Each structure stands twice: as structure tokens, then as C-alpha cells.
What we know:
The protein is α/β, with parallel strands linked by helices and 294 residues long. The protein has three domains: 2-43; 95-224, Lysozyme-like (3-Layer(aba) Sandwich), CATH 3.40.80.10; 245-293, no CATH class. The chain has twelve helices and five strands. The chain has a five-stranded mixed β-sheet, with helices on both faces. A hairpin with a 5-residue loop joins β2 and β3 (132-134). α10 runs parallel beside α12 (280-293). The radius of gyration is 27 Å and the shape is globular. The structure holds zinc ion.
Amino acid sequence: xxxxxxxxxxxxxxxxxxxxxxxxxxxxxxxxIILFLAIYSCSYQPYRQANKSYKxxxxxxxxxxxxxxxxxxxxxxxxLYWIGTTNFNMRKPNFVIIHYTAQNSCEQTLRTxxxxxxxxxxxxxxxxxxxxxxxxxxYLRAWHAxxxxxxxLTDINSASVGIEIDNNGFEVFTEPQMKSLxxxxxxxxxxxxxxxxxxxxxxxxxxxxxxxxxxxxxxxTLADSGYGVWYGDTTNVVVPDSFNSVRxxxxxxxxxxxxxxxxxxFKTHFLQxxxxxxxxxxxxxxxxxxxxxx
Length: 294
Ligand SMILES: [Zn+2]
């Protein structure tokens, strides 16, 4: 109670007022409630439970890493020995997959990624004001790609960092978002030696299921800075009669089991067009990109 009185004194600026407060119990009660709400709002952390859960899971995985492989399997006839090598480090991401959130606010996405029932996550979320939320250690596997394929790689989550950009899919990306994205890509590329061609979008790796980051995403600007493949002037490119569009898409990395969707994904990425018909001009671009992907 003495602490409360002291705080009330601070609030009211004078010790002389306190005695009169006791005369008016309703006023005193109101002040106590206001004080409680002020303290509560200062300490309120909406993601406290999620952060606790993160630490708990990270501890379990650390325990798993410390186990010796002899516990993993047994052999029938031959003895199994465990000798720890001295030469190793952690596996690292080799791809960056870019998404839009398809949601209406950053807050909504942060909440989605901290609810166990949603079963989705990403390493980073970039809000419209350019603020970046790091949600998972880059060495751990986020659940952002889903069923996906790029070349022969089918477990994209294990090989990649996922970046979600707050965007509902029908709007341009903001300048602060792009600025933060470039800083993040720069850091990731340098830290993990990620090849330029391995900066791709969700629709590239899951063309029949996903459309993000969509036609408004500035892939050319990214490619100009070394994130992703792009093409040069196609004026003098001659497409041979024998040109096989599906094979070219496969060379780039697209899953062509659904070739129409693969064409749409290619055009969304390289031509900012969501149609699924390849014109002669489109084929020139496809040929160029395929050659740069070899
Ligand atoms: Zn996505």
C-alpha cells in the first residue's frame, strides 16, 4: 500500500492531496484501476506465449542434435560404432523464397504464424513501414513452401529461408518494404553464399497452387542487384523451330507436370502478366532465361 501511495503521490504531484483521497473512496478506487491498467498495458506482451513455445521447441531440437547417431538405428549382424568427427558445422539455407502474405495487415500475419493450428510460418515478415520481424533462426526449417518443387529439389523448406512481405496481392509493395528487403537479401546472400539464381518466388516453386509474390513484385530490380536471374535485350534473339517451351521451363527449374500453370508462373515472374499463353516475344524471353539458368 505504501508503494501505491508513493505512486499516487508521483501521479498527483503532491503529498498533501493524498489524505483527501481517502475521504473520497470512489476517486481512490478509480485511480487504482487507472494505475493498474497503465502498469498492465506497459508490460503486455501479446507474443509472450509464442516466444516461450519457441524456446521450448528450440531446446528439444538442441537435445536432438546432441544425440549420437548410434541411437538412430541398429544393424543386424555388424557392430555399429560411433566416433564423432571433429570437422563439421551447421547446414545452411541455399535458397530464398519470397512471398506476399495475402493478408490485410502485418499484425494478422504475425498472429497467423504464432498460432499452432495454422501450421504455417516464415523466417522473416516485412511490414509496410519497412519493419522486419525475424520469427525463426535461419538454420531451422520454417513451414512456408508447402508442397513445392524446383528442379529436382522437393523439400524446399529444408533448403530455404522464407520471406513474407505484407501485401494482400492487389497492391504495389511499399518503398520502405523494398528497402528492408534489399538489406535482408544482402545479408542472407553474403552470410550463406546463396547463388543469384536461387532467389525465387513461391509461385515459381508451386505454380499450380500459389500466385505470390505476384505481378507487382519488382523481380527485375532485384535481379539488377544480383538477386534472381533476368534476361537481356531480346530484339535479336532467334527462337529455333525446334524450341521446346516445356523443356525450357524445366531447365529454369519449374515443375512442368502442370505446364499451363508453369507458363503462368513464368509469365508472372518475368513478364508481369498472369496469362498462360506464350507469344513469340514471350518465347524469346523464355529462351534467354533458360540459357542463363544452365
Ligand atoms: Zn507464399
